[in-house]
Specification:
The termini are far apart. The protein has a seven-stranded mixed β-sheet with strand order 9-10-11-12-13-18-14, sandwiched between helices. Strands 3-6-7-8 form a four-stranded mixed β-sheet, with helices on both faces. It has four domains: about 130 residues, no CATH class; about 90 residues, no CATH class; about 110 residues, VSR Endonuclease (Endonuclease, Chain A); about 180 residues, Gcn5-related N-acetyltransferase (GNAT) (Aminopeptidase, 3-Layer(aba) Sandwich), CATH 3.40.630.30. It has 24 helices and 18 strands. By secondary structure, the chain is an alpha+beta fold. Helix 23 crosses helix 24. It is elongated, with a radius of gyration of 40 Å.
Length: about 550
């Protein structure tokens, strides 16, 4: 009979996972003696005799002995049988079996003492040495042995059962060696670091990455493999030491800082707040946060920037709740502040929330316009600046100029091709350009600076007609444009905007873009985040014609 409990304990196999060439633990039906044997051999024995007896019990029967002798002689006279058995004898599995049998015999004190006599030892050494040397001197023997071993291994690895068995066996052996501390004793830190660098170099090769990717995808199609990986990872994350270890590793890795995080750091810099960006200093227990602001007089503030798309799923919200509960329960000296991605698109909302929370304000810098240098820049150079300080954020690209005080960007202006539907038939057929963005850093607001910036930038534009829009919804009446020699051309009918519960305004285009990113309709996004549609004020269209002064 098969002892499945002992089979699982010894080989890690069950009735569902055992295959033909796997070893199992069986017991004799007559004397209950236990032994290891191949699963296919046991099944063959049961099929033939309807029972399993160990060698000692089976050989006590004279009829059995006579039948074995007769059958063996008959088979050995068959060429195919001899060839097959010679192949089996020369196999690694057979050699391993004989090796284990020899090791077992050497545990017998009487046998060991008999074989360890000086005469026997010298005979074995001499015989083995002479035989091995003579054989190995022959090139054809060396080539034959190499070819035999290579072809045997290749053939074995083509068998999916053998491959699965070897992978599982190697995994079990390696795990036990690490758990028993054997590897720790064999490999010092210097060796491990050296091997890690070697593996890192190997895994960085393109061909290796492709092979690993292909193998990983193929393995992932196997439900058994996929479930095993998922269960193993879930089990790991239940271990507090593992979770803390992974949090440390994540905090020390180089991160791709998100756009909301970049804007948050800019606001904190403007407010003159001492803080720590995402990294080792923002790791609290099992988790890493986007920002940490120390508060000597109270609880330190942990700030999380929540992406609208990634943090809106049920699983993400569940993780966020667990994260909040963990900090609230085990680290009461900290409090968490959540800022959603769409809030950064609402004029002054995030900045004012930070000011209220931290009790900080933006200091105004005094400077001389003579020290400001206007430079042509790329749209990428000012994208973060516009996202942080312009009420709509970055827009269309075009001819971009940055105002610098020393090395610091304190303002920018963008001239873009106008939208055809807004200008068709209103300004003739000549060359036309739109002043689409004008933005100044909150710390550098100065009388006449904006009109000075517009005037200097216009001089660097090769276009006779420039238009600009002032949105009365946000209190813009065109004072800056009039000071820069623009004239009012016409008024644009009011359009709708969105406001949240606190009265902060979000541009309809911004809300629409956020909704598309989350694969929602504009209406669904507004309902999800409590934005209400409101009709704003009219827009004033101003025009500047070179050589024409007001």
């Amino acid at each position: 009979m098969i002892l499945w409990d002992k089979t699982e304990e010894k080989f890690g196999l069950t009735a569902q996972t055992a295959r033909q060439k796997h070893k199992i633990v069986v017991a004799c039906d007559a004397c209950s003696a236990e032994r290891d044997m191949l699963y296919m051999c046991y099944r063959r024995t049961i099929k033939r005799a309807n029972k399993y007896n160990c060698h000692s019990c089976a050989t006590q029967n004279n009829n059995f002995k006579a039948g074995c002798s007769k059958r063996a002689l008959g088979l050995w006279n068959t060429k195919e049988y001899r060839s097959r058995n010679l192949s089996a004898v020369q196999s690694e599995e057979y050699r391993e079996k004989k090796k284990q049998e020899s090791l077992a015999r050497w545990q017998d004190e009487e046998f060991r003492s008999k074989m360890m006599t000086e005469e026997k030892t010298e005979q074995r050494k001499l015989s083995s040495s002479i035989s091995a040397q003579e054989c190995w001197q022959r090139p054809e023997y060396r080539a034959k042995i190499s070819k035999t071993i290579s072809s045997r291994m290749k053939k074995q690895w083509l068998d999916d059962n053998y491959k699965t068995y070897m992978i599982e066996l190697q995994t079990i052996i390696t795990s036990r060696l690490w758990q028993d501390g054997i590897f720790d004793e064999c490999f010092d830190k210097e060796f491990c670091a050296k091997m890690a660098e070697i593996n890192k170099e190997i895994n960085s090769r393109v061909e290796v990455k492709q092979k690993l990717s292909k193998a990983s995808k193929q393995n992932w199609k196997n439900p058994k493999y996929r479930n095993a990986i998922i269960e193993a990872n879930q089990a790991k994350w239940q271990n507090p030491k593992y979770r803390e270890k992974m949090a440390t590793i994540r905090s020390e890795q180089a991160h791709n800082i998100s756009s909301p995080q970049i804007q948050l750091y800019k606001y904190l810099d403007d407010l003159g707040v001492n803080y720590h960006k995402e990294g080792p200093r923002t790791r609290i227990g099992y988790y890493v946060f986007d920002c940490l602001v120390n508060n000597p007089g109270g609880r330190d503030l942990l700030i999380e920037c929540q992406g609208d798309y990634w943090h809106s799923s049920d699983s993400a919200q569940s993780r966020d709740r667990g994260k909040f509960t963990y900090i609230d329960r085990y680290f009461p000296e900290y409090e968490i502040m959540y800022i959603w991605e769409h809030e950064f698109s609402v004029k002054d909302r995030v900045l004012q929330r930070l000011q209220l929370k931290l009790g900080a304000g933006i200091d105004t810098v005094d400077f001389d316009l003579k020290d400001v240098v206007l430079k042509t820049v790329s749209s990428a150079d000012i994208r973060e600046f516009l996202d942080a300080y312009h009420y709509i954020g970055k827009g269309r690209g075009g001819n971009c100029h940055g105002a610098f005080l020393g090395d610091e960007l304190i303002g920018c202006i963008v001239f873009s091709p106008p939208i055809r539907q807004n200008t068709a038939g209103q300004f003739g057929d000549g060359q036309l350009i739109e002043l689409s963005r004008l933005c100044i850093h909150p710390s550098y607001h100065k009388k006449n600076f904006a009109s000075w910036l517009v005037g200097r930038a216009i001089k660097q534009i090769d276009c006779d007609t420039i238009i600009a829009y002032a949105d009365t919804t946000v209190g813009h009446t065109g004072t800056i444009y009039r000071a820069a020699n623009f004239i009012l051309h016409h008024e644009v009918a009011p359009n709708y905007w969105y406001t949240d519960g606190d009265g902060y305004v979000m541009h309809k285009k911004t809300l629409y873009q956020r909704a598309r990113k989350m694969k929602l309709t504009e209406r669904a996004f507004a309902e999800k985040y409590n934005y209400r549609k409101k009709w704003g004020g009219k827009k004033l269209c101003f025009v500047h014609i070179r050589g024409k002064h007001v």
